[in-house]
Amino acid sequence: MTELKNDRFLNALLKQPVDRTPIWMMRQAGRYLPEYRASRKDAGSFMDLCKNEQFACDVTLQPLERYPLDAAILFSDILTIPDAMGLGLYFETGEGPKFKKVIRTAEEVQSLSVVNTKSDLNYVLKAVSTIRHELNGRVPLIGFSGSPWTLATYMVEGGSSKDFRHVKGMMYAQPEVMHQLLDVLADSVIDYLNAQIDAGAQAVQIFDTWGGVLSHNAYQTFSLKYMQKIVNGLNRERNGVKIPVILFTKGAGQWLESMAETGCDALGLDWTTDIGQARARVGKQVALQGNMDPSVLYASPERIREEVQTILTSYGKGTGHVFNLGHGIHQFVDPEHAKAFIEAVVELSPAFHLAD
Ligand code: CP3
Question: pLDDT value at position 93?
Answer without folding.
Answer: 76
